[in-house]
Design brief:
The protein is mainly alpha-helical. The protein has one domain. Helix 1 packs across helix 2. It starts with a helix and ends with a helix. The chain is 71% helix and 0% strand.
Length: 63
Amino acid sequence: MDRRFDQLKKALFDWGTDYIEEFIGYGMTCGKEKDEIEELMNEAYDQMPDDILEEFYKKFCIE
């Protein structure tokens, strides 16, 4: 994981579940602990194409 992804995870947590679910691609965060949600985000990151990831960085102003 890189520094930018750490910043993105923080931003997603700050903005809330709708944004997290958009990032992971489905609505499975309800009732999950922060560690479980972070693991889902890590899995999504590992599988996400670079161009889509860059769109999220731009959306949250992460350089």
